[in-house]
Design goal:
The chain contains five helices and two strands; from the N terminus they run αααααββ. The chain is mostly helical. The protein has one domain. The protein has a two-stranded antiparallel ribbon. The longest helix is centred in the last third of the chain and has 45 residues. The model has no long low-confidence stretch (mean pLDDT 80).
Length: 159
C-alpha cells in the first residue's frame, strides 16, 4: 500500500470517530459545520445528533449516479475507439451515442450531488440552532461593551 492510501484511510477513520462522537453537553458546533461542508454524507447531522440517514442516502445515490455514469462514459468511449480502429462505423456511432447518454446521466448525478450538498450544508445551521434552543450544545457569541472606564470585548459562552 502506498503512503497516500494509508493517509486516506487514516483521514476516513478520523472522520468516522469525530462524526460518531455526537454532541455532549456544552460541545461546540464547529465540527458539525466542518463535517457537513467538507465530508457530507450526513456526518455533520450525525455529529449534531440529528436525523442523518436521509442525507446519507441522498449523497450515496447522487454520488453513485455520477460515478457509474462516468464509468459508463469511459466504457462507451473505449468501445467507440476500438470500433473506429477496426473500421466498424455503425458500432462506433452507437458507442458514441451511448457515451453521450451516459455523460448526461453523470452530469445530472453531479448536479444533483451539488444541490444535495448545498441543501445539507444550509440545513446544518437550522439543526444546530434547534440543538442550541434545546440546550444540547453550547453557544459562542462575541461581546462588545462601552463602559465608563473603557471598552470591554470578549466571547460569551452560554450553555
Amino acid at each position: 500500500m502506498g503512503t497516500k492510501f494509508k493517509v486516506f484511510i487514516c483521514v476516513l477513520l478520523l472522520i468516522a470517530v469525530v462524526a460518531s462522537m455526537g454532541f455532549a453537553e456544552g460541545k461546540s458546533a464547529i465540527p458539525a459545520y466542518l463535517l457537513s461542508f467538507f465530508v457530507g454524507f450526513g456526518t455533520g447531522h450525525r455529529y449534531a445528533q440529528a436525523n442523518w440517514v436521509p442525507w446519507l442516502v441522498a449523497d450515496l445515490v447522487t454520488t453513485a449516479t455520477f460515478v457509474i455514469g462516468m464509468g459508463m462514459v469511459a466504457v462507451s468511449a473505449a468501445k467507440a475507439l476500438s470500433s473506429a480502429v477496426t473500421g466498424d462505423v455503425s458500432s462506433t456511432s452507437s458507442s458514441m451515442g451511448a457515451a453521450l447518454v451516459w455523460y448526461v446521466v453523470a452530469g445530472m448525478g453531479g448536479l444533483a450531488k451539488g444541490i444535495v450538498w448545498i441543501i445539507e450544508f444550509v440545513n446544518i445551521f437550522k439543526v444546530v440552532k434547534q440543538q442550541r434552543e434545546a440546550g444540547v450544545i453550547a453557544s459562542w457569541s462575541p461581546t462588545f461593551e462601552v463602559l465608563p472606564t473603557g471598552i470591554a470585548a470578549g466571547l460569551k459562552y452560554s450553555y
